[in-house]
Amino acid sequence: MSDSGQLTGGRLNAALASAVVQIHNQYFGRGPSKGHAFFRDRIVVVVMHETLTKAEHSLAESGRRDHVLEMRREFQRTMEDDLIQAVEGLTGCKVAAFMSDNHISPDMAVELFVLDRPVPGEPAAGDGGFGSDGASDGA
Question: Which of 51, 96, 104, 122 would be a feasible disulfide site paired with 32, CB 3.0-4.6 Å?
Answer without folding.
Answer: 51
